[in-house]
Specification:
The chain is an all-alpha fold. The protein has helices spanning about 20-25, 95-100, 105-130, 135-145, 165-180, 195-210, 220-230, 240-250, 260-270, 275-285, 285-290, 300-310, 315-330, 335-345, 350-365, 370-385, 385-400, 420-430, 435-445, 455-465, 470-495, 500-510, 525-540, 540-555, 560-575, 575-590, 595-605, 610, 615-635, 645-660, 665-675, 685-690, 700-730, 740-755, 760-775, 780, 785-790, 795-804, and strands at about 80-85, 85-90. It has a two-stranded antiparallel ribbon with strand order 1-2.
Length: about 800
């Protein structure tokens, strides 16, 4: 019978000889080759492939005396290692030279070798325990050292170690054999990523040595290498590269590949860059892999052809392959058309064919067509700037009845509106297709439909979150376009001609047809300014922040504290504390902006004790005044907490600030006031931090942890004392209500403050009352006026009700 087509070489005539002739000639048959001769296996040799560069004139050699070769025919080479400036150390051999190149310290390598030796001894011990019936102890050692249970009856893999000519070959074959001995612990049915890495490490190192006689590798070794290196999963990202090299080696060794191995070998060849050769080999394999639907590889063969031909641009052949498969096997998944649709959409001349294939896909799938299938098709059209086709596909997904929009200058009202387009934009942005979302906005602009500011802000925020330079540039460009739109609206409103605003935008766009980007954009909102402000603040762009604030002021948008907070934080980041303070008072006193919890968090962070490592007495005195002033304003302004994070962070920062200033009277007044107004309950972690005088729980250095341990002892002593007092009253810390527990933790905090101040409560009282007056909480912590407490409380109604 004729030979398997996969044994033919693409550029050579077949050397087929029948079995009877082979028997009569008593010769060995040439191994069948799967890969074409275009990509031959190249054995490693010591012969140079190109002339060596001329030697330096500073080194003199004797051209008449050739290099001496050893008994194995290898040229003697001296190796050196640079140990200092102009100092070199001669190395013993190539093995020591390889170790020097590895960059590992000899002591470290010795430790690694010792650990490997101990692990081998452990494996031998486990084997002996199994042999003598001590299975429980063996399983315990396996669990400790993460050893797998060897399969009973596993045959030891081995490559014959005799007959290798050079020491280099013998060494690497021995290393590979040493690894193969341990493969009994590898479960080929559940390969681990570490198994793949180790297998490839030893095999790739031995390939050069094995290239001289690959036919000596037993079939069992090839089978093991294939099962491990071709394992499909996330833990094998280089799977196709491994398969490509392994197939070449098996082909050179004369190993007969199974049909499934041949098929995946073609795919690996294609993905490794040999696209034309892979497609040619795929075509020649039709008689063995894809001739009849009864073949095991029939469906996989034609699906691979569709994918490869689509990616290579051979659309006609890809379509024929898809039709062949769909006609021969009716139960074939029609989604095989998606790669072909994507390829057709790449070219302008085949866009109609892509649309035709999309309709065929819908017809074949029917009600089984999922949203993910529509997303694939829509993405194919949007990525090639065929937005109208993408919109029509989205309309098909959203409406049960047909709605045709292609070629129409005016969209139907059910489609041409902000709400419908907003659904599409939300889906595209959520899927990360930001360029597609931008193309949708540009297409809507050509149809006279302006997206809402919310949709534009969503795209701007997504671009910023992407973190790419292109995304940041586009976000800034679109954001400032919206700001210019807002400023134009303000200008026209001042002229009492707001109706001219959209018309002026359209005229501006038509006057500059070559302009890149969107022109017909909605007015910037407070959210637009907030997104840009957060971006500039996080990147420390002070000039951009100032420019944005000027535009914000001109935009005449009623604001809240967010923009002010961003400006304050930007000034503080750029070491402009006085400017930040002046800006804060200008916004609150002249412009009537009401600060919130985030404002005071930024202000307390701006204190020198929280910014500087080295603080002078001048800093301490100035911050002592500012901290009490900030606390007074924090109490007097009407605001409420908007989240749990700020509710925990602000009191923590306030207490740490007073502690760093050694203002224990202010710290006591702040803790009692925050207990009433914030429903503040100190946590055990915060008590430890304050006792240690550091934020050790967030900066776990060695010194901080030592302080934390010593502080925990103090807290523990106080808690034990309080526990005894409660036991004397017939109560226990474990059975306290949340209100009583909060009260007890508050008492521990106050005891800590008195301990830090090294005074009693009576001794601290005069300073405490003075601090309470300066901080605006005298009626709260001294007089305990219920009306004042209710009026100044900062908890939202829901949280306040739950707290009480």
């Amino acid at each position: 019978m004729p030979p398997n087509p996969l044994s033919l070489e693409l550029r050579k005539q077949t050397g087929y000889i029948c079995q009877s002739c082979l028997s009569s000639l008593n010769t060995r048959a040439a191994p069948r080759r799967f890969l074409p001769a275009i990509i031959p296996f190249r054995p490693y040799t010591k012969q140079a492939t190109r002339p060596l560069p001329k030697s330096s004139p500073r080194i003199t050699t004797n051209p008449t005396k050739p290099p001496e070769a050893d008994e194995d025919g290898e040229v003697a080479v001296n190796y050196f290692d640079e140990v200092g400036a102009g100092r070199y150390r001669k190395l013993r051999d190539s093995e020591e030279f390889s170790k020097a190149l590895s960059g590992l310290d000899p002591d470290i390598e010795a430790m690694i070798a010792d650990l490997e030796h101990k692990l081998q001894d452990t494996a031998q011990l486990v084997k002996m325990l199994d042999k003598y019936g001590m299975k429980d102890k063996a399983d315990e050692l396996r669990q400790i050292y993460k050893l797998d249970t060897p399969n009973d009856g596993t045959q030891t893999l081995w490559i014959p170690d005799d007959g290798w000519r050079t020491p280099y070959q013998r060494k690497h074959v021995a290393q590979l054999n040493s690894f193969l001995k341990s493969t009994k612990y590898i479960n080929v049915d559940a390969v681990k990523p570490t198994d793949i890495k180790r297998t490839w490490k030893y095999y790739s190192a031995a390939r050069r040595a094995l290239s001289a006689a690959l036919d000596r590798v037993p079939a069992e070794v090839w089978e093991f290498l294939w099962k491990v290196l071709s394992w499909e999963g996330d833990g094998n990202p280089n799977r196709m590269s491994h398969i490509f090299i392994l197939v070449k080696d098996m082909n050179a060794a004369g190993v007969a590949l199974t049909v499934s191995q041949q098929l995946v070998g073609v795919e690996a060849m294609f993905l490794e860059g040999y696209q034309a050769e892979a497609i040619e080999l795929w075509k020649k394999s039709v008689s063995t892999l894809g001739s009849t639907p009864e073949d095991d590889t029939y469906r996989e063969y034609w699906e691979l052809g569709v994918r490869m031909c689509s990616l290579s641009g051979d659309l006609e052949r890809a379509e024929r392959a898809a039709n062949t498969l769909l006609n021969a096997v009716p139960e074939t998944d029609p989604r095989i058309l998606i790669p072909l649709i994507r390829a057709c959409a790449q070219k302008e001349e085949s866009i109609d064919k892509a649309w035709e294939l999309y309709h065929k896909l819908r017809e074949l799938l029917g009600e089984d067509m999922q949203i993910e299938d529509y997303d694939e098709v829509i993405g194919s059209f949007l990525s090639t700037n065929h937005t109208e086709y993408g919109l029509q596909s989205f309309v098909d997904m959203m409406f049960s009845s047909p709605v045709d929009i292609r070629g129409k200058t005016r969209l139907p009202s059910s489609v041409g509106n902000q709400y419908f387009i907003g659904k599409w934009l939300k889906r595209l942005i959520g899927a990360g297709d930001l360029e597609g979302a931008y193309n949708v906005l540009k297409y809507m602009e050509t149809r006279g439909i302006m997206g809402s500011a919310i949709q534009f802000n969503g795209l701007i925020g997504a671009w910023i979150r992407s973190g790419t330079a292109d995304g940041l540039e586009k976000a800034e460009e679109l954001g400032w376009a919206m700001i210019r739109s807002r400023l134009m609206f303000v200008e026209l409103r001042q002229r009492q001609a707001a109706v001219e605003w959209p018309l002026k935008l359209r005229v501006q766009a038509s006057d500059d047809d070559k302009a890149v980007g969107l022109r017909f954009v909605p007015k910037a909102t407070l959210e637009t300014f907030s997104i840009l402000a957060e971006n500039y603040r996080s990147r420390g762009l002070q000039d951009k922040m100032d420019e944005l604030w000027v535009a914000f002021d001109d935009a005449e948008i009623s604001t809240d504290a967010f923009m002010m907070n961003q400006m304050i934080e930007t000034y503080v980041q750029n070491a402009k504390f006085k400017t930040a303070l002046e800006f804060y008072y200008s916004m609150t006193q002249k412009h009537g902006i009401v600060p919130n919890a985030h404002t005071f968090l930024a202000l307390f962070n701006s204190l020198a004790v929280n910014r500087l490592i080295v603080k002078t007495e001048e800093h301490i005195e100035e911050d002592s005044v500012l901290s009490r002033r900030f606390f007074k304003e924090m109490v007097e302004y009407p605001w409420v907490f908007d989240g749990d994070w700020i509710h925990a962070s602000l009191p923590r920062l306030v207490l740490h600030s007073f502690l760093k200033l050694r203002d224990y009277a202010g710290m006591l007044a702040a803790s009692r006031a925050m207990r009433e107004l914030f429903w503040f309950v100190p946590t055990e972690a915060l008590l430890l931090e304050l006792a240690a005088g550091t934020k050790a729980t967030r900066n776990p250095s060695k010194r901080n942890m030592e302080l934390m341990i010593n502080s925990s002892k103090k807290i523990e002593v106080w808690l034990q004392q309080r526990h005894k007092e409660l036991q004397a009253e017939g109560r226990s810390l474990e059975n306290l209500t949340p209100e009583d527990r909060a009260h007890e933790l508050g008492l521990v905090l106050e005891k800590l403050i008195f301990f830090k101040a090294t005074v009693t409560e009576d001794q601290l009282r005069p300073l405490y009352e003075k601090a309470a007056r300066e901080m605006g909480v005298y009626d709260i912590v001294v007089e305990k006026d219920p009306e004042a407490i209710n009026r100044l409380r900062k908890l939202p109604p829901v949280k306040e009700a739950s707290a009480v």
